[in-house]
Amino acid sequence: MSWETIIGLETHVQLRTKSKMFCGCSTAFGAPPNTQVCPVCLGLPGALPAANRAAIGLAVRGALALGCTVHPKSIFARKNYFYPDLPKGYQISQFDQPLATNGTLSFVSAERGIVNATIVRLHLEEDAGKSIHDRFAKATAVDLNRSGVPLIEIVGGPDLRSPAEARAYLLTLKQLLEYIGISDCDMEKGSLRVDANVSVRRAGEAALTTRTEVKNINSFAFVEKALTVERDRQIALVESGGSVTQQTMLYDSKENAVRPQRSKEESHDYRYFPEPDLPPLVLTPEFVAEQQSELPELPAQKRERFMAQYALSREHAAVLTASRAVAEYYENVVRAPADPQAAANWVMTEALADANDHQEQLRVTPAALAQIIALVKGGTLSHQAAKKVFGEVAAKGGDPRTIAESLGVVQVADTNVLAGWVTDVLGAHPTEVARYKKGEVKLLPFFVGKVMRLSNGKADPKLTQRVLEEKLAAPA
Amino acid sequence: MSVSREEVLRIAQLAELDVDDDTLPTLAEQMSRILDYVAQLSAVPANGSVKAFVPGPDAIRFRADEVTPSQLAFGPDEFAPDFKEGFFVVPKLGQFE
Amino acid sequence: MSDAKAVADRLVKAKRLNALLTPPKDLRKSLNMQVAAARPTGVLYGMPVAVKDNICTLEFTTSCGSRILEGFRSPYEATAVAKLKAAGALIAGKTNCDEFGMGSSTEHSAYGRVLHPLDKTRVPGGSSGGSAALVAAGAVPAALGSETGGSVRQPAAFCGVVGIKPTYGRVSRYGLVAFGSSLDQIGVFGRSVHDAARVLSVISGRDPRDSTCEDRDPLRLPTVPESLQGFVIGLPKEYFPSELDPAVRRACDRAIRMMKELGAAVREVSLPHTPYAVPTYYVIAPAEASSNLARYDGVRYGPRFNGATDLRGLYRATRGQGFGPEVRRRILVGTYVLSSGYYDAYYRRAQQMRALIAQDFRNVFDRGVDLLFTPTVPSPAFKAGEKLADPIAMYMSDIFTVTANLAGLPAISLPIGRVKGLPVGGQLIGQAFLEDEMIEAAYALERVVPPTDEA
Questions:
Q1: Contact across the interface for C355 and B53, Cβ inside 8 Å
Q2: Chains that contact C by 3+ CB pairs under 8 Å?
């Protein structure tokens, strides 16, 4: 019996603003506890919210990038529940009139190719503080620095068919949001958080089945694992004659297991009602247009353009557009100028490998990389030598040619010098010379190699080859 | 309409209020009377076309995204009932609750 | 400039009313410091203004008449208070009130009831009863109160002083402890229309911290008019029912006659949805209150009750013991009407009814009526304890005042006579942000009506 898995993700994303959603406190991560707080985000008696323009602008950008309909009027609502890190006893969110609805996120599924997943809605809300359970022995510690940080919640439709697809969807979403610069999407820091709705049904059936919500997935590495565990649990349950009950499951990454949240602590009656402290969120066409104009070229568009403009394969274009910084770097190298294909190879191999080892810093300037590429093309540097120069420039900076010279790796293209080396090599290997002359021309690289070694790699290989051929063709 | 004692307890749980057994009957009776009284609203012909009225400005005002001083004359350590090492302290609530 | 000691002495003399929650020692100490710091150029320089205990001040505790905030010192002050201080006024202590503003008699205070200054067996009205009583007793020339359904005008009428509720959005609510956010406004009491109006003028105007406060300049005070020539005063028939206390009706008739003599045109009008105002109010206000009062959970401020060892226990003990019976009742009703399955029947219905009530007023004003005149309360101050057992009877004393809160309109109550020695208030309801016209008419009426004569 085969099973189909149905997954929909609800993603919370912290917006990259200087101040909080409804007050002027800093959003900077990592400050000492309860130092970025004020009457508003502490929920003191009498305090009132005042909405941050930048947060609303970033949320609109996110909605536009996801192809959502941005509503000219939306309403803030209170979601009421008690929790120690929720200072007002309600979260200011949006309910029946959200900021944006009905968008799409296209991603590549290993199983199904390109999938257009529905974005049901995108709304604005404020973050809660943090409850820390392992700080004190018998008590919970509450830090409200995060209270009031602006969030968007992106509700995806039940369009994902496997844990792997959920991961692909989430990575694509993360890439998009990073691209447009509205969030740093760091799951480890909690600036991107995901909850999943999961259900299973027998393949071919269309009926809706009971779903569960999986929470506490706090790293990209756990997305696929957590959803696989929950899917397998549901399948095993149904196959053994049981049925899935609607509940919230918490993922435990240490055990790689899910367990139900204690039901008595669940209160699904949030008593939403319109937030009386905030008038309707009215967006003028000018405001939306301003946000549209702030949007950069999106990853998918950029990928298509790279393929067309630089004659790159889809795979190479995808690697080079995976992050906005890399794409910009690549284009700057090409503009420096450099051959697009050679630039692509260099960026994808040397530059990204170096960045990977050095806190994602692209340490060699585009101009320097373009120069290195030119030195290879002009025969001044061998490919091996160029890699050495790249490493040196990355570590110390400076002019590639000067560095090549100081490293003594500039290729020798003087035929007189080469001819001397060639004569020495031929003289040292009479047997091979004899075999060559009898027709074993495949020995040519052997001689080239010897010349290279003799020259400490400085000999220009192409020129060496030519001089060798001339000498070997000459009558003895 | 009448509100049962069970219903009062359910609502009290949502509102995180202790209701003791002595006051429960009176409370149920008073809530029933109040809800009966306000229920006269449903006798008015329901007109779906009537939009809710909210006083105040028609549109939200935007605040510039600037970090401003916190406006606290003194810190949480001076008003919190239990404050330790920079944290508000509450009785334990397990991670999986 | 009144000196600190004289100001404090006058307040301490009124101690028997239980209207002031600030201990005399704290009051004297703070007044000394305030007098030294007050700005001599301010338009209210040296004027003592008592402040209702649900408005945040740095000088004194802010307990909202509740045990749940007993001893709470706010680390910030309300915008209205900051504006008063900037104008040179002295914050003359905190006044007793119904807990979180929930009540019409100031009997629902955790710190004991306030006595009516003219008859200690009666209530001063509420919820801002302490502020009204202090002004009536001559302890301060003016005081701040707050309104959700009539909590300034009703006690002003009971105590025989002037009370103004401004248009919703005229005065910043920042630092006013929320009860029903879409209804709440800070209001002002004064011995005279002028005292109340000039304090209102100072606290009014824009505040970026309150998103519901209109981006407008402070109220400009009108001059005292010679006549009411050109004013059209509407008398809504629903506010003069046959069962209205005959003495209250007599006082109103006299005031109406005087307005006519001043040249006003008077005509009967109708606000047909008036009968539904109190039930509408008693859905919306508790609903909003149930959410606004969720923050009192014993986590961040205020006392904790009972040594609860688990979190739910802490919540329930703190809230169960910290809130008084009326507040608990309203939180439960409010939670009920917002809960799943009941929202449409109660809250949505009430919101629609609120729109019809606001439309009633617009219809009347659109037909050329400038102001409405009504009794403020159907009867004079009632006996303490009289309505405690019957919440709905208590709610009915708001019947003529809640409409202005529901519609967000400005209204003023001023004394228009007495009945067996007890004050009667007349109410003028104005158009949104036209407080100046309303105050102009009140000036004129105040000059001619005998406030202490039997009707």
A1: yes
A2: A, B
